[in-house]
Amino acid sequence: MAALAPSKILGTQLNFAGSSRYATTTPTAGAQKIVSLFKKKPAQKPKPAAVSSSSPDISDELAKWYGPDRRIFLPDGLLDRSEVPEYLTGEVAGDYGYDPFGLGKKPGDFAKYQAYELIHARWAMLGAAGAVIPEACNKFGANCGPEAVWFKTGALLLDGNTLSYFGNSIPINLVVAVIAEVVLVGGAEYYRIINGLDLEDKLPSSR
């Protein structure tokens, strides 16, 4: 038995072609397609963010109004930048180095005055709408009184007349108008006093 070649067992010729066939067989085109379907694709590299060509222009424009090199309320020949108070650093809008009374010297006072200014601006916007809308309606055919201008509306009430909107007379005299103003404006002011001056989550564009 030891004399037998590895290719013969009990005189029978062994054929290793089958085993070599399995070892060297290349996958068919269909098999390659199936394998490629389940093959994990390499992750694509993220594309670099496009750099806007206008960024330098925006930075240059902001530098004119914010920061230490911003414009100040007087030309450089009339006011030296060393005379601008140190607490006016140009970080907020409208800071042009002018604070003769030192109102913004204390950070707490500055935040309070900033909140007051925002409140006054909101009341002014509401008043502007109340002045423009009736006059515009009167101009385009809606009858809002003989002269629907804000500085004559109060005169109508003083003369004992009533207001008119879209041709309908509103039974409001001077006493009712004053009471309504006290209730509405006073209610808004009372709400503000109760909730403080933290307006970040109550009003948009609070900067």
UniProtKB/TrEMBL annotation:
Chloroplast listed as a keyword: yes
Compartment list: Plastid, Chloroplast thylakoid membrane
Primary site of residence: plastid
Keywords: Chlorophyll, Chloroplast, Chromophore, Photosynthesis, Photosystem I, Photosystem II, Plastid, Thylakoid, Transit peptide
Positions that bind chlorophyll a: 117, 120
Gene3D superfamilies the record matches: Chlorophyll a/b binding protein domain
Binding-site positions, chlorophyll b: 122, 175
A single BP term in Gene Ontology: photosynthesis, light harvesting
Coiled-coil segments: none
MF-aspect GO terms: chlorophyll binding
GO CC entries: chloroplast thylakoid membrane; photosystem I; photosystem II
Domain of life: Eukaryota
Entry function: The light-harvesting complex (LHC) functions as a light receptor, it captures and delivers excitation energy to photosystems with which it is closely associated.
Binding partners and assembly: The LHC complex consists of chlorophyll a-b binding proteins.
Family, similarity comment: Belongs to the light-harvesting chlorophyll a/b-binding (LHC) protein family.
Protein name: Chlorophyll a-b binding protein, chloroplastic
Organism from which the protein derives: Panicum virgatum (Blackwell switchgrass)
